Amino acid sequence: xxxxxxxxxxxxxxxxxxxxxxxxxxxxxxxxxxxxxxxxxxxxxxxxxxxxxxxxxxxxxxxxxxxxxxxxxxxxxxxxxxxxxxxxxxxxxxxxxxxxxxxxxxxxxxxxxxxxxxxxxxxxxxxxxxxxxxxxxxxxxxxxxxxxxxxxxxxxxxxxxxxxxxxxxxxxxxxxxxxxxxxxxxxxxxxxxxxxxxxxxxxxxxxxxxxxxxxxxxxxxxxxxxxxxxxxxxxxxxxxxxxxxxxxxxxxxxxxxxxxxxxxxxxxxxxxxxxxxxxxxxxxxxxxxxxxxxxxxxxxxxxxxxxxxxxxxxxxxxxxxxxxxxxxxxxxxxxxxxxxxxxxxxxxxxxxxxxxxxxxxxxxxxxxxxxxxxxxxxxxxxxxxxxxxxxxxxxxxxxxxxxxxxxxxxxxxxxxxxxxxxxxxxxxxxxxxxxxxxxxxxxxxxxxxxxxxxxxxxxxxxxxx
Length: 465
Ligand SMILES: *Cc1c(COP(=O)(O)O)cnc(C)c1O
Description:
Blueprint: H1 10-20, H2 28-34, E1 39-43, E2 46-49, E3 54-57, H3 60-63, H4 72-84, H5 97-109, E4 114-120, H6 123-140, E5 148-152, H7 161-166, H8 170-173, E6 183-186, H9 191-194, H10 200-218, E7 223-228, H11 244-255, E8 258-262, H12 276-280, E9 286-289, E10 301-306, H13 307-313, H14 328-343, H15 346-364, E11 371-377, E12 380-385, H16 401-412, E13 415-416, E14 418-420, E15 423-426, H17 434-457
Helix pairs in contact: 1-2, 4-14, 5-14, 10-11, 15-17, 16-17
The structure holds pyridoxal-5'-phosphate.
């Protein structure tokens, strides 16, 4: 058996990594110089690197390891499924038990009439499916002109041509010919950064009404769908004002625009319900799922689709699918993950125990001189770093300069948190316990102190004029 173990010193692993491994969203040459951190193993909420450092994973990997690391049950299920049936496709009028069981379970868990699942290998693939599915839906209903999908600036929906186009990351659009045609972006409900003098409630309504304006300008007969994350994740954990989603829902209902909720992060307990749509009061026609679906133990994603949309799509041939749609091993792993989430009451734990406990501690970080706001829903949170709380000012330095310093100070204190510009974001495993939350907040506080000292000593504690 060729186990992949740390038989090489860290420096050699880093040199091989630099020579042969191209990293996502990374400046390769810069990383090659510095050397990537090598993660060896993990248990619960704790990572161990090749130097033996024990690091609290405040990001659950990439927002996905909801049940925490090291669950034997998932290893067992994967091994059993590989022995029984490692692969079969679902294209040519065949199916298999793991895909059947997982689709049925998802239909049971999903709200309303979301009873049908189209599987993919990732969130990006699932959103590519959604683009083709909503356009095909309208074409099959005799309205092929309805092809525009409205999304939002600073949204994240994946990194493929389609999903990256849906996303609103301009630095992604700048490379490789995105966005594809017929994707339209409206502004995000990011009150802290863009709300000016309006109240959050006013601002939430105004930003939601941009959807109505866009539909008016583009023409109702040309708009197929609106897609959004219930709470933006990669964009900086941006929790919309309470007025936002009810107004979006009203507009989608009024103009018969399909509503796609991208639940890739918010799904599977992150917000204290099974789905973010339940927490935010959204009634989507399609939900995108991935990440927490398998807690990241296997690559799998999908679209959970309403009776209406699935009925229309089913009336013709949908010329779409992936070799790994409903992959039996990934499906079996996901199903076991859902069993654990359900039987161990992990979602109740988020809602009633870990979420409220974290909220109290997290919000207290707002007293720090470097922190403007500290917000959280369930177990996803963000803090805005600012040189001036009252005016919600940005730093005079390039966006992300201070955030990067803060992230480095987190690493140095054995805590993984990400920075999105000058915001810090967190999303720990959902099984995190109160004592671990204490440790996390402790380390975050120390990182903020050290960051503050560094920012001041470098003369960066200065507002943009
Ligand atoms: C991560 C993410 C995706 C993309 O999922 P991948 O599995 O990385 O392709 C899509 N939508 C949201 C909201 C995400 O956070």
